[in-house]
Specification:
Strands 1-5-4-3-26 form a five-stranded antiparallel sheet. The protein contains two helices and 26 strands. It has about 350 residues and is mostly beta strands. A hairpin with a 5-residue loop joins strand 4 and strand 5. The longest helix is centred in the middle third of the chain and has 4 residues.
């Protein structure tokens, strides 16, 4: 992979020229004066791929290009971003274009294909969702005697590629007791995001279970689950994505909603208090922003939330009451959108 950097300088938003035509453009529909003062970081996963940032006017202020297609997920930090450039590769790149980490499948302890998400733990290790293959006899459930359940796990690597820890779902849940396992054997559970909790344990969002699990970072034991499986009108969220924390320490997810039960997307914040987990607040989006898959929400200031609604190709900033302060539409949908401070991205 070859990276190209467009460097910018100065206290104001840079005016870039000759921006590649494949980098998306944006139509700003709503832009309140106090919506946000910073940049929104996005990834274009076509080939060639690109990381880029826009300001509140929808103008490109920074970008880096790749000579290959990119996977959708990445994590921004103050001086760099961490991403999967394929299912078999991990890179951390500085905003100035320097390669900090470059790991490849098959080297060292990197022995799992990756899936959907990657982050760092409190010790600086790399924590990624992994693709797992479980050989099973599914003949009693309508499958084959020699069959395979494809599912997800967690792999922890040092920055040099040494495997520190590995976990997969069948350590805590028997697929043979799961209803209709033969139907779901090609993608059982579908984990789509991972986050490190304040105590160092791991939070994993399972899209098809409509649940978030907290997993012990040593034993692999599931400490708690929040959500309802199978789908129920009482479920706190459906097909959720992007588990993270808000600024008050609550857990925050993008609740995609459901075609069958609740055709509405929203943010859902919940908290575990002495073993009792409950929803603390929700931020509803208009019905027109229903995004039945993918998507994200992150709180970036006290009263500001950034949403990506990729199925309707829209980015939105709201306050805590759901008032839309900024909205941008594009011909592209973005799996996630991140807020970054100006001084972190542009030097």
């Amino acid at each position: 992979m070859v990276w190209f950097l467009v460097a910018c300088s100065g206290p104001k938003d840079p005016e870039l020229k000759d921006i590649p035509s494949f980098i998306p453009t944006f139509n700003i529909v709503v832009n309140k004066p106090d919506a946000f003062d910073g940049y929104i970081l996005l990834r274009e996963s076509a080939s060639p791929g690109a990381q880029f940032a826009i300001n509140a006017l929808g103008k490109i202020v920074w970008y880096q290009l790749s000579d290959t297609s990119l996977l959708r997920v990445f994590r921004p930090y103050k001086k760099s971003y961490l991403g999967l450039y394929t299912k078999t590769g991990i890179q951390e790149i500085s905003y100035q274009g320097d390669t900090i980490i470059n790991l490849k499948y098959g080297e060292g302890g990197f022995d799992r294909f990756l899936h959907h998400d990657i982050t760092k733990d409190t010790d600086g290790n790399l924590l990624a969702l992994s693709k797992e293959f479980i050989p099973l006899d599914l003949s009693k459930w309508g499958g084959d005697v020699q069959d395979t359940v494809r599912t997800d796990g967690i792999i922890k690597l040092t920055v040099s590629g040494e495997k520190v820890w590995h976990w997969r779902i069948d350590q805590v849940m028997d697929p043979l007791v799961y209803p209709k396992i033969n139907r779901f054997k090609k993608d059982w559970g579908h984990a789509n995001s991972i986050e490190v909790d304040d105590d160092g344990n791991y939070l994993v969002s399972w899209r098809d279970f409509n649940q978030v699990w907290k997993i012990d970072n040593h034993t692999g034991k599931v400490l708690w689950k929040y959500g309802v499986d199978p789908m129920s009108p009482n479920a706190p969220f459906f097909q959720q994505h992007s588990i993270t924390h808000d600024m008050e320490g609550n857990y925050l997810v993008f609740d995609n909603g459901s075609f069958r039960i609740r055709k509405k997307s929203r943010a859902v914040a919940f908290r575990n208090v002495n073993g009792t987990i409950k929803t603390v607040y929700t931020i509803d989006l208009p019905d027109s922003l229903f995004s039945f898959k993918q998507g994200s929400v992150y709180q970036f200031e006290k009263n500001r939330y950034l949403f990506s609604c990729p199925m309707v190709q829209t980015l939105v900033v709201t306050d805590a009451q759901g008032k839309i302060l900024w909205m941008a539409k594009s011909k592209h949908g973005f799996y996630r959108a991140y807020f970054v401070e100006k001084h972190n991205l542009i030097k």
